[in-house]
Amino acid sequence: MTKQERIELEAAAFRNLVSHLNSRKDVQNIELMNLAGFCRNCLAKWYKGAADDMDIPVNLDEAREAIYGMPYTDWKNKYQKEATPAQQANFQNTQKPDKHES
Predict the structure, then answer these.
(1) CB atoms within 10 A of CB 62
(2) d(CA 62, CA 65)
(3) Which SUPFAM superfamilies match (predicted)?
(4) 1, 6, 11, 39: which one has the fewest Cβ atoms less than 10 Å from its Cβ?
C-alpha cells in the first residue's frame, strides 16, 4: 500500500465514522464518552488540531460543523438531551472533565 492509498483509506474511514455518528443522533455525546472515551466534540477538536498542524485556517465552530453536519448550537438544541445523574456520575468517574465537553 502506498502512503497516498493509506491516506485515502484513512480519510474514507473518517468520513464513514462521521456519517455513522450523524445517522445516530440518538446517541448522546456523554454516552460516547462513557463507553468509548471520545465524542463528537473530541472529533471536532482533533479535526481542528489537524488543521492547525497543517496551517489550514479552521476555527472550532467550523470544525464542529464539519463533524455535526450543522452548527453546533443547532445540533445541541435539536438533539442533545440532559444527561441523567447516572451518566454524569459515570462521566465524572472515568474522564477528566476539563479535557472534554459533552
Answers:
(1) 14
(2) 5
(3) SMc04008-like
(4) 1
| The pLDDT of residue 33 is above 60 | yes
pLDDT at 97 over 80: no
| Backbone phi, psi, residue 49, to 5° | -60, -40
Going from N- to C-terminal start, the domains of the chain cover 3-93
Q: How far apart are CA 53 and CA 25, in angstroms?
A: 29
The domain made up of 3-93 has a fold known as SMc04008-like fold (1.10.3340)
Handedness of CA 35, 37, 41, 46 (dihedral sign): negative
The pTM of this model reads 0.85
Cα–Cα distances in angstroms (integers) from residue 55 to residues 43, 44, 58, 63, 91, in the given order = 18, 16, 9, 14, 33
